[in-house]
Inverse folding.
């Protein structure tokens, strides 16, 4: 019991007074202005459907997976979306492993409500066989570091992960057309989820001085604040959800001001998420093109013509390798000026050079050494 | 880890070392008495490193490894910043970022008697000295120095406290004055209390000064002297532009 007391986060009376005094002159302890968000960084990993978001010191990861299950009885045509949160004990000394705490349940609920009530994720497209088989999408949120304002960071992570998630394509087959065949990703390209709009959560913290409001509270500000409100909006200024659980009473004019500010922030964050997802998608598409092996080998001993030849024929590498081994004896004699090829890669490019010289003979004028 | 062929310790002093490095070979140094501090261990003739950090040497014969951590291990004689957690009949329970709570006797103040026991509420910030720190027992603190005078120990009022690593506290307390405090002190007036347990308290007349000083100190641990001065100049310029 004593060690637990020794490890938990402590707040001094000095800090509480100082944070409130500084807020009266519109200053926050990390130098931000009251309505500034911290820097958001969104990263993706090789696995599709996982996103890692850092909001200042707060660090959250989201993973999206999908499974075929039976639908709910009252909604036979719709897929399901469920959220699970895990507050890792390494994020904060007060997080304990085991049953989710009240804060964990509230976080999951707020993000879930923002996506479900506003119908941001199209669940009808997740139906495969009405009444029998639908996709159940599951979002797992892991809190890695608690630097304050977990709701906003987790929301961004969930949206980024949902936008980059791809589910396998499936079709109906079998004798009576009732069997569901799931196609593996190598056979058919997996499909993205249909997401109509992005609901962004913006959290406000209220302090005991009337009408002192800040956006995106840090860990210290959360310990000192008197109440908080989370407004979930999308970039079109539609309000998807509002959550104000207890805390101090707030004037109606303050709430309207907060909603206006939240609209601007939602627009900024939506653009950031969309840019990050787009750059990730282009990078992934480029990675797919580079998969053909002959485009990789570069011969340094030969002249620059090898590079040109390789770019001309990225796809024929596989089929040509069988031809090349038989022609090795022929080309070796003509290639001896270029030096003996030491590695197999160099041999391949020499062969390709020789083959293309015989067939295309295009830019061979660049190659002063051979012939 | 490979052995450095030379046995002269100057190749390792002030360098970063990791556990397993052999820094001294005693077979080459005869009839010398060495004092080994924390982080070093003697295996027959070789002195090897147990903790990752920088190897330090002080004349004539003291070697030790200095590392920077967020946890604090209490040692007698350290000045630390503690937060009052509870008050009992005889002691205050104070948190000093160590493995357990520390005890501050109710009478350990200058001129302290049973009649004028100070009333500290929960969350009070104190600047205290560690008197006893034995492993397995709760450390004992005092608000007086060794001769019984108050000497600036006691409650710290107002201001702002933040936590960082023990390495930063040592850097702030080193003499000559570390570059970040020097550069800040030339332009701004403020007071600080640095605890060896990684806590730093800053107070100034205006909140903006406190915020600038606190952020400058927090960012300065990994910067060199010149970089610290540049950072401080930039922060002060921003401060002057906004006021």
């Amino acid at each position: 019991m004593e060690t637990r007391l020794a490890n938990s986060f402590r707040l001094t009376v000095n800090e509480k007074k100082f944070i409130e005094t500084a807020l009266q002159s519109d200053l926050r302890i990390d130098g931000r202005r009251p309505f500034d968000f911290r820097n958001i960084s969104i990263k993706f990993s090789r696995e599709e459907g996982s996103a890692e978001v850092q909001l200042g010191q707060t660090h959250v990861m989201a993973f999206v997976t999908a499974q075929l299950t039976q639908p709910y009885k009252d909604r036979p045509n719709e897929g399901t979306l469920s959220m699970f949160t895990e507050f890792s004990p390494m994020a904060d000394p007060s997080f304990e492993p085991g049953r989710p705490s009240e804060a964990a349940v509230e976080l999951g609920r707020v993000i879930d409500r923002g996506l479900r009530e506003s119908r941001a994720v199209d669940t009808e497209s997740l139906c495969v066989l009405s009444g029998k088989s639908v996709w159940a999408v599951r979002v797992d949120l892991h809190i890695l570091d608690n630097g304050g304002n977990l709701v906003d960071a987790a929301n961004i992570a969930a949206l980024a992960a949902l936008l980059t998630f791809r589910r396998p394509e499936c079709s109906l087959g079998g004798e009576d057309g009732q069997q569901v065949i799931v196609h593996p990703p190598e056979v058919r390209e997996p499909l993205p989820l249909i997401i109509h709009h992005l609901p962004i959560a913006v959290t406000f913290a209220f302090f005991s001085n009337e009408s002192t409001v800040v956006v995106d509270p840090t860990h210290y500000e959360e310990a000192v604040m008197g109440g908080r409100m989370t407004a979930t909006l999308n970039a079109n200024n539609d309000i998807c959800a509002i959550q104000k659980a207890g805390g101090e009473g707030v004037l109606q004019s303050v709430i309207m001001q907060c909603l206006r500010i939240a609209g601007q922030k939602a627009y900024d964050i939506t653009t950031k998420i969309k840019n990050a997802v787009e750059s990730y998608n282009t990078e992934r598409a480029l990675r797919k093109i580079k998969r053909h092996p002959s485009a990789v080998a570069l011969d340094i001993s030969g002249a620059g013509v090898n590079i040109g030849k390789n770019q001309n024929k990225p796809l024929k590498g596989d089929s040509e390798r069988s031809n090349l081994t038989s022609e090795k004896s022929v080309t070796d004699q003509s290639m001896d000026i270029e030096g003996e090829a030491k590695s197999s890669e160099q041999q391949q490019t020499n062969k390709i050079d020789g083959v293309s010289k015989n067939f295309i003979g295009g830019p061979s004028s660049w190659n002063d050494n051979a012939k | 880890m490979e052995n450095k062929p030379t046995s002269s310790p100057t190749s390792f002093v002030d360098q970063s070392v990791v556990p397993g490095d052999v820094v001294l070979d005693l077979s080459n140094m005869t009839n010398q008495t060495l004092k080994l501090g924390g982080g070093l261990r003697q295996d027959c003739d070789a002195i090897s490193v147990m903790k990752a950090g920088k190897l330090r040497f002080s004349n004539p014969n003291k070697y030790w490894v200095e590392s920077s951590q967020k946890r604090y291990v209490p040692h007698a004689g350290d000045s630390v910043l503690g937060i009052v957690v509870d008050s009992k009949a005889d002691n205050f329970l104070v948190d000093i970022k160590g493995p357990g709570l520390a005890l501050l006797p109710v009478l350990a103040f200058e001129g302290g008697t049973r009649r004028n026991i100070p009333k500290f509420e929960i969350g009070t910030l104190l600047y205290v000295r560690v008197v006893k720190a034995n492993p397995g027992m709760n450390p004992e603190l005092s608000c007086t120095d060794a001769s019984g005078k108050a000497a600036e120990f006691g409650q710290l009022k107002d201001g702002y406290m933040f936590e960082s690593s023990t390495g930063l506290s040592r850097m702030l307390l080193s003499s000559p004055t570390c570059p970040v405090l020097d550069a800040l002190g030339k332009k701004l007036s403020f007071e600080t209390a640095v605890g060896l347990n990684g806590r730093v308290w800053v107070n100034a007349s205006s909140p903006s000064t406190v915020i600038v000083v606190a952020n400058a100190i927090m960012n300065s641990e990994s910067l060199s002297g010149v970089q610290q001065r540049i950072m401080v100049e930039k922060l002060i310029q921003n401060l002057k532009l906004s006021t």
